[in-house]
Amino acid sequence: MKTSDFYYDLPQELIAQDPLEDRSSSRLMHLSLKDGSLEHRHFTDILEYLNAGDCLVINDTKVIPARLYGHKEDTGAVIEILLLKRKENDIWECLVKPGKKARPGAKISFGDGILKGEIMDVVEEGNRLIQFHYEGIFEEILDRLGEMPLPPYITHKLQDKNRYQTVYAKNEGSAAAPTAGLHFTKELLAQVEAKGVRIAHVTLHVGLGTFRPVKVDDVESHHMHSEFYMVEEDQAKIINDTKKNGGRVISVGTTSCRTLESAAGEDGILRAGSGWTEIFIYPGYHFKMIDGLITNFHLPESTLLMLVSALAGKENIMKAYEEAVKERYRFFSFGDAMLIL
Questions:
Q1: Any residues with CB less than 8 A from the CB of 124 and at least 6 apart, and which?
Q2: So what's the pLDDT on residue 211?
Q3: Model's pTM, two decimal places?
Q4: In contact, 333 and 23? CB cutoff 8 Å
Q5: CATH number of the structural domain spanning residue 83
Q6: How far is residue 225's CA from residue 218's CA, in Å, rounded to a whole number?
Q7: Which end of the chain is more exposed for a tag (fewer CB within 10 A), N or C?
Q8: Is 150 part of any domain?
């Protein structure tokens, strides 16, 4: 299976640069798992596709304002860093630009010195381990100094930080938003529950690997970056009970999907717990847990496009994407949604 099999041509102007004023007013394309047929709807119509006894699984991770700009203490050179993974003792794995100015031992000052960092080591992919020094609470300092780490294809400045968070974001730790969840308002979630649909939450802290292009020609040679996930006991019970009672488990986003598929056994039972996952889902994968997926439109040749192709079939997905381009859907993080069910 070739990476190029997942290429499609996307006009630049279809990449959504700003979130819609009303989260739930985006468009919704329904792709039927039964026959591959397509319907064009609005996101609030999602209620028509959900049945009492189903379970919607959301990812409650919260994006941290992980992009920081500082100055090298010796030369004053501007350094941009992106926090990727928290290690121990205030050490973070970071993406640093420009890398050549960020050698071990270099000291960086942020926000007139209220936060300082020292580069400790260079690790895989050229990422840096940075030890931070500060007084007070790191998260509060980050909130003052940090910017939301929007994906590289979004060039507009985000006016409201909260628009790159889901309304149910709770557990801090992501470098990117689980964007399928951005379409939900609290009112719409209340309507979902009023219909007799259970809402369960899992956590997967989204890493930047989500935006990294697949650089190999052969899909199976691609190696996924690891991401931390958590499934709580009571939430696993809600999801397992749904399956046992004949309801459908519908994942909100590829991150919830990857969490469920990582934590499920071959017996189709979800295990509570936490850990790191490098699961890579592409056509040929046998789904153990999910029956449907709410997702956005993904980048050409991306692992996320491969995941949705595994669920709905590559031909169906490529046909749907062709239709989405023709119908001028909005693509990527702030774009429109697709329901595969």
A1: none
A2: 65
A3: 0.92
A4: no
A5: 2.40.10.240
A6: 17
A7: N
A8: no
